[in-house]
Specification:
The structure holds 2 protein chains of 2 kinds. Chain A is 0% helix and 58% strand. By secondary structure, chain A is mainly beta. Chain B starts with a strand and ends with a strand. The chains are: A mainly beta, B mainly beta. At the A-B interface, strand 5 and strand 10 of A face strand 4, strand 5 and strand 9 of B.
Chain lengths: 113, 110
């Protein structure tokens, strides 16, 4: 158990509405990530953070923004949800140093109708 | 272009059979991880390998990191229905950038 909690776990929203997914960690890790997973595409990095207020884009960042005001919380916001953003979203943390490893939360299922 | 290629993409075998899943790249990784993911859940770490040529065993699962640290394999002996799931490999170059393969979907038929 990597101490990662995602909320909400399931959400249905309408096209054009804003959506925020929350990731909370209990183990004070510096690095946090948001991925989306879709059939045929595997896990794709949306954004990641390497410290409070330090974030960077991943390979599929268009339409998404993130914020990290505290070490333990990493928020993913869809400013105006589209049907192409229907997906399962995973938050993750990673350890640092030799053999650094990434650990995932249980996922947030988002459906945009 | 996929940095990490996994093969096979799909695998369906009978209970008791052996199988091997491969994770290949043209790049050298500082470490590599294997995960198993079941439907409706997040990927769960199975193992991390760091040293070229390293072999790790986890019950019926054997993981090997290639000598050149560009590839890895996962071998399952006497597969059981509980082994069913999506197997993912992930490689790290430097820092904390993780690159994932597209996965191998394994079904073990009782």
């Amino acid at each position: 158990d990597a101490g990662i909690t995602q909320s909400p776990r399931h959400k249905v929203t309408e096209t054009g509405t804003p959506v925020t997914l929350r990731c909370h960690q209990t183990e004070n890790h510096r690095y946090m990530y948001w991925y989306r997973q879709d059939p045929g595409h595997g896990l794709r990095l949306i954004h990641y953070s390497y410290g409070v207020k330090d974030t960077d884009k991943g390979e599929v960042s268009d339409g998404y923004s993130v914020s990290r005001s505290k070490t333990e919380d990493f928020l993913l916001t869809l400013e105006s949800a589209t049907s192409s953003q229907t997906s399962v979203y995973f938050c993750a943390i990673s350890t640092t140093g030799i053999g650094n490893t990434i650990y995932f939360g249980e996922g947030s299922w988002l459906t945009v109708v | 272009t996929q940095l990490l290629e996994q093969s096979p993409q799909f695998l369906s075998i009978q209970e008791g059979e052996n199988l091997t899943v491969y994770c290949n790249s043209s790049s050298v990784f500082s470490s590599l991880q294997w995960y198993r993911q079941e439907p409706g859940e997040g990927p769960v770490l199975l193992v991390t390998v760091v040293t070229g040529g390293e072999v790790k065993k986890l019950k019926r699962l054997t993981f090997q990191f290639g000598d050149a640290r560009k590839d890895s394999s996962l071998h399952i002996t006497a597969a059981q229905p509980g082994d069913t799931g999506l197997y993912l490999c992930a490689g790290v170059f430097t820092g904390n950038q993780f690159y994932f393969g597209t996965g191998t979907s394994l079904t073990v038929i009782p």
